[in-house]
Amino acid sequence: MHFSLSRPMRVHAWVIFTMLVLLTTHTVVVAQTNSITNREMTLQSAIQRTLANSPELHEFTYRQQAIEGEIKTASLKPALNVGIEMENFLGTGEVSGIKDTELTLTLSSVIELGNKLNSRKAFAKAQSTLVEAQKQVHTLDVLAEVTRRYIDVLAQQALIDAQQEAETLARYTYQAVTRRVDAGASPAFEQKRAEAALARARLDVVTAQQTKQGMINSLAIMWGEKDPTFTDVEGDLFALQSSPSLTALFTTLLDSPNLEVYTQGSRLQASQVRLTQAANQSDLSWTAGIRRMNGIDETAFVAGVSMPLFAGDRNLGEYQKQRAIQAQLEQQKESATQNLYHQLNMALVVRNNALLNVHTLQNSIIPPLVQALELVEQAYINGRFSYLEWVSTRQELLNAKQALIQSAKQAHQRGADIESLTAQPLVDTINTSFSRKTK
Questions:
Q1: I want to staple 5 with a disulfide (CB 3.0 to 4.6 A). Which of 10, 160, 317, 426 is the partner?
Q2: pLDDT (tens digit, 9 = 90+) per residue, 122-148?
């Protein structure tokens, strides 16, 4: 099935996906709280837990609430003022006492000109839109970080498997060397070297397991869990798809929130310019009231209007300042676009190199090393090769497997970087239904 999205819809497609995740987070997390114990954590569950509990993301909720308060304030019309004045009282002579007092009760306010009310509301709403765009960018960063930490654990699991396999080979080597030493076919020092190699292999396994626990702790911290209830993560480290073309990624980047935040920043500044421009037109102040003159026992109405002169000239400097800031933001967006293009290009280069390494190691390096190890092992048992050649070949194979794990890890990590930049998923880094495979 194939379908296409218009550009405005593509801009927020990832947001819709994130919102769907958030809507189901509470149910899913509650359902999995008990069942996740002593089970493998999935990437989907890690993301859901992080989105539901990350204080960095919840901060934006309060920022929006603050802006909602600003919108309400900006929507208010000028207040009505009530005033009272007394004249000609408590004087001397003919105006002594209060017999000639004049009492005036007034009602006054301001008539805003220049569409100031709508300009204030538009500015406050533009602030809200900018904060939402900033939240989208921050969400991408958080999702990329939880994915990277998840991949760290997944790669460490693969490394532990490789170290355990190396320990098994070291134990087998020690046993084979011991038999030859006991038979007098090999010198005793080879047995001691094999014993030390076995101890080293055991140490590597323990060290890798401790490192893995530290990585699990770092992953769980993403959603505030200090005592993780899971011991493994689920996934196939070597399930890697080819990268999209750089041209396709550049096109996708144009719809990314990483650039959208600059667009919304420019729109906010445009609202600020309009607000400043509206301030160029003076407001009209009016007063109306009623006056009571005790001296002649009469009542009269009073009214007045006032307007500042040359207010536009006084605001000209501020207007020029805001226009300059607006132009500056446009340049910042161009600069940010070039920087994002560079980051995307470098991430793609590193990922493609890692994919090439994975393919070469899996198909052209590790298989012949496995065969070589079998041949050298048999030759050593038959007394044709030395212990050193056997150990050297075994170490070459272990190094190749470690390089394979690191290359696959790097491919996934850079894939997460590309996702964060483009806001579009790569298949291999979001596929959470695959079974664990580390060999």
A1: 10
A2: 888 888 888 888 898 999 999 999 999
